[in-house]
Write a structure and sequence with these properties.
This protein has a 3-stranded parallel β-sheet. The chain has one domain. Helix 3 links the parallel strand 2 and strand 3. The protein contains 4 helices and 3 strands. It is α/β, with parallel strands linked by helices.
Length: 125
């Protein structure tokens, strides 16, 4: 489940400091002689195919991790035999996806419940 995230850390690295206020090395670790390509074991794009199912949920107004980027990555996964879906939530932005109570939350909750084989009940908001 990708909530406004990137599947390609290498491509996203130049913008991570500006968009998220963190350095890519905090996610990948620093390169070393023993591990020169830090993306090889951390970036989902480098681990294709991984045998999993991916669901990308982005707000239509997300300028950090755009719906277009997620759709392209989902297509790349499908081309490599994986199951991948990209969902766009109208009128939602980057921070709406993980926020309970946001306009994106019902979409996120439905995707999570579907992934674990559960149905939504009236107690779930």
């Amino acid at each position: 489940m990708h909530l406004g995230g990137s599947g390609d850390l290498k491509a996203w690295a130049p913008d991570l400091e500006t968009s998220c206020g963190t350095d890519i090395a905090k996610l990948t670790g620093a390169p070393s002689a023993a591990r020169p390509n830090v993306y090889a074991d951390t970036s989902p794009a480098e681990l294709i195919p991984n045998g999993g199912t991916s669901v990308f949920i982005n707000g239509a107004l997300d300028i950090v991790a755009t719906p277009e980027e997620s759709a392209e990555y989902a297509a790349k996964l499908r081309q490599n035999g994986a199951v991948a879906t990209a969902i766009v939530v109208p009128s939602a932005s980057h921070f709406d996806e993980p926020a309970v109570g946001s306009r994106a939350w019902p979409v996120v909750l439905a995707a999570i419940l579907s992934a674990v084989g559960m149905a939504r009940t009236s107690e779930m908001r």
